[in-house]
Structures are given as C-alpha cells and as structure tokens.
Task: structure prediction
Amino acid sequence: MSQRIVQVDAFTAEPFRGNPAAVCVLDGPADAGWMQNVAREMNLSETAFLHSQGDGWSLRWFTPTTEVELCGHATLASAHVLWEDGHLAPEETARFDTQSGRLEARLNGEWIEMEFPARAAVEEAPADAAEALKAALGIDPLSVFCNPFDYIVEVDSEQAVREVQPDMGRLAEIARRGVIVTAVAGPELAARGVDFVSRFFAPAYGVDEDPVTGSAHCTLGPFWQSRTGRSELTGFQTSARGGLVEVAMRGDRVILRGRAVTVLEAVLRV
Result:
C-alpha cells in the first residue's frame, strides 16, 4: 500500500511559520487505527484524512494520541490541498462532512475562508477550576470563562500571554480539551491591525502548545466581540511559529480566514 501525504503550513503565507498539518486525500474510508498510527508517525498537532463522499468530502482529524471533533488549521490545509492538486476548481466550494457537521471553505485570492460553528465562552469558570488554572499557568488572570470544550483565560497584556510557562502536567488534568490564554494586542501588533493575541495549550490531547489554532478562534471571536462590540476582528497566535487568523462573526457561525503554503510531499509505504 502507498499513500501520498502532504504537509501544509496553515494560517501563514511563509514556509516554516503558522501551524503545520499533514493531509491525506484517500480513495475511500480508512481504518481508524491506521489513521491514528499515521498521525502518531507524523507527530504534528493534527493530521487530516479525507475522501470524496456525496456532494462533499468526509474529513477526520487526529492528533498524535486521539481523534478530535473540530480542527481549523487542518481543515484549511485540507481545502488548500484540494484546490492545489486540482480536486476542486478555484471557484468551487470545499464542503466537508465532519463530527462537527458540515463545514465549508472558499478560496478568495490568496486567502481561504472557512465557516465554522461559533463556540461562545458561555459562563465563568467555577472557582476551583479558576484556581487550578491559575496555579498551572503561573499567572493572575483578569477572568476565566469556559464552554464545553475549552477554558479561556484573559490576562492583562500581550507580554503576559507571551511569557506564560505552563505546568503541562497540571494542565493535562484540567477537564477540557484545552486552555486558551488571551489579551488585547500590544501597540506594535495593533499598528498592524491585530486586535487580540492568544496561545493554546492541550496537553491532555497530546499537544502541549498548538502553534495556531483555528478552532480556538471559534471561541475567541465571540469572546472579543463581547469585549469590543465588533464582529470583524484579527487575531495573532503568539507561539514560536506564530500565525494570523481573521475572524468574522455571523450569528451562531464564525468565518475564519487564513492563508496556507505546501512545504512537503511524501509517500507513505504502509
């Protein structure tokens, strides 16, 4: 058996920046155990597997340790590969059937626009969870909110976001997919049109720090809309690689915009 696999840097136009994702365009459904093994072998935060199905594409995402129900950067990478390899014409919409329902992506010049479900941070975190996060992150947050998927921790400055050094063992015990740390963008990024910054940690899912997390912006969009009153925002994820995500709120949906670049092509022989 041989299978082509492509590595794409997502949410960036520069190679070796943004968030790398591996993409396998399959002839048909594959065994989940095999997909998990491939994801473990690739050792990236996400590997995407897709095949043609009905009027769209079945899409699944795996971290090195588990399957996840929503991933932004690997969806962007998958759409990029479909257009780049000629599976879809540039004017065609990429339609994905996933555990999170139907997702769509469209090509707009150099940018890819994806429509995702909004995941508002619906309530303040319980006091014991907030204290556990404070200890695990080593910070004094302004606020801690949550939804069924993630915690969102607001701090007082971009510098505070950049300086967080989490205790990954403690974070892995937090009963959510991951933890988002966020703040208003500092003066330098604000001058470039950036509204907020963030980092994302998910050690319980085998990803200590994700470089650029599209799905986290499904929460960051509603959160910063509530703070600013604006429905169009730009976020920068301040990981070592860094990446830009444009966010547009549309009721219970969110439009994520980003760019992508292919950096590697290979053949799996097993």
